[in-house]
Amino acid sequence: MADVLMGPTPEIENSKDVTDLVLQDILAGVLLPGTWLKQIDLERRYKCTRPEVRRALDRLAQKRLVEHVPNRGYHVYEPDGRRAREVSEIRIILETAVAGTILKNASADDLDTLRKLAVHFDRMVLDGTMLELYEANLAFHRQLLVLGGNQELVDLVAEIRQRTSSAPVAQWRTRARIEQSGREHHLMIDAIQHKDAEELKRLVRQHIIQN
Question: From the centroid of its chain, how far is CA 14?
Fold first, then answer.
């Protein structure tokens, strides 16, 4: 496992939660899986106090993005294949279960919002950073699940997504897969528009397994 990378210290607004700053670096691949997170290094990097760093690491440990090893410290979580498969199975169960409700609730304005989010993802494929692409993907899927009418489900899926991979680059092994994800977003919208619940379920299942 590598030690935390110490690059130029960014300028940080005091109002921003240190948890978000560490999480952003994890999602962006700045802090890779297995990286040991030395608290003194994080203090310097984010210009914050030791208690703030400790609270941030504890919160991330709860999300399973960071692992606490007693008497050793914290490191960025290293997911295993079994865990990834099992989380994918859970996501498929949860996200396909609300397909019918999504079709029932989706209005023309909702479809327009989804289409704009899908187009934004496509634009990030061409011009965005990996973190921007990752966030665009999350925004699309969150909005899709919102149409299921169950906020607890939306929050639960958001939380378990973070258990499988700490860096977005791990979700798409090739550019072809990234582009395929974009096409699937549009196909999901088409399925909703055509009131085809089975097609929506198929696309969601395919999307989760291949991502």
Answer: 25
